[in-house]
Structures are given as structure tokens and as C-alpha cells.
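Look at one record.

>
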Amino acid sequence: MKKITIIMPFLNEEEEPRLTVESIFNTAPKGLYDIIAIDDCSDKPSDLQHFKGVRYVRNPRRVGVDCSRQIGVELAKTSCIFIIDSHMRFKNDKWMEKIIECIEREPTTAWCTVCLGLDKNNMDVHKTRSKYHGADMLFVDSNATESRPAREVLEPKWAIKKNGLEYEIPCILGANYGFSKDWFQHIRGLKGLKLWGTSEPFLSMKSWLAGGTSKIRTDIEIGHK
């Protein structure tokens, strides 16, 4: 029985969406998930349209990554959703079963996982030294500098790791977000977002204002290029 839908928007990412899907195929139990790949009108259609096990949706015009995520959520048929970018790598560590358990246990929580920093010189999730554990949020910062100016929007900043398997964080970050579909729709998801790059504070604040919270699960580590 399908329990979770992976929602992956992309634009002109060449082979990365396919490699991300293959990494999911190689690490997650077959029959447990759907994948919805939202092509935001790339210059040429992706080869994912021919992939068995992937629902390929091509936007007729470019609407942006967050609108594409919203489209994916609305198309999802499962009670759990997991939003990712199209340049991710996964460990064979029961990550999918863990995130489903988290969402089902706390359906009013926005879930985040540890983000492993990858780049073109190292795409091995077992050899990265860069690990990120959710984010704090800055308002207009009185300690702003020329290299880090104050902004009149909420700004996510990587948080210091705390002890514990899971704990509350001010802001999800890292392009690996788990929600119950009902909760995402209850807080109206990404509807109303006006500024690119602020989706994580937007979702985190919406969850908190509606009576939920945001948490990180520290034994799920997902690579992000």
C-alpha cells in the first residue's frame, strides 16, 4: 500500500533528476511510495517521462519551484508527502520508513532531516563532512555586516546541532521536508508566497501559527548537491 508521495520539482537539471530518482529506487521499499516529478517547463523534456514508477508532469509555462511543489502536493494521493529537490542522494538506512513513522505519529509537525552537503567533486553520502541540522530564523539583524546585510524578511540560518533523536527547530531547511497532506493543506501550504527563497520560514511559521511545530529527525541523513 502506498503511504508517501515524493514531490520533486526541477528545471534544466540535466541528468540530476534521473539520478535522484534512481537513488530513491535503490534505497526505499518498492510499493511504499509514489514519485511525482514536476518539470517546470525545462528547455527540453526530461527522460523521466519514460521512467516506470514516476508520474511526470510538465508545466506548460514556468511557474517557479514553490508553485511546482504546491502542484505536486495537490496531485498526491497518499496521506504523507515528502518534498525534495532534484539533486539529492539517499542512504540505504530505512529513511523512508522513518519519515513515514514521524509524519503518522505527529501529523501537525513539519519534519526536516539532516542535510548532507554534496558537490560535483563528492556525491558520496557516506564520505561527506558537512552536516546541517535545520535552521534558526533571523529577523532584521542588529549585528548585520556588509557581507550579511539585514533583511526585512525572515531569513533561515543553519542551526547548531543539539542532542537527541528528534527535537523542535525554528525552521526546516535543506530541501527534505515531510508533512501530512492534511496538515499541509490546512496551513494552505505555499499559497500566498510572494518571494523566492523564503519557503522554509513561510512553511515553518505557518505550522507554528496554526498550532503545530517543526522538528528534525537526526538519524535521517539525506545528501543535497
Notes: The two ends are 31 Å apart (CA to CA). The mean pLDDT is 93. Residues 7 and 83 are 5 Å apart (CA to CA).
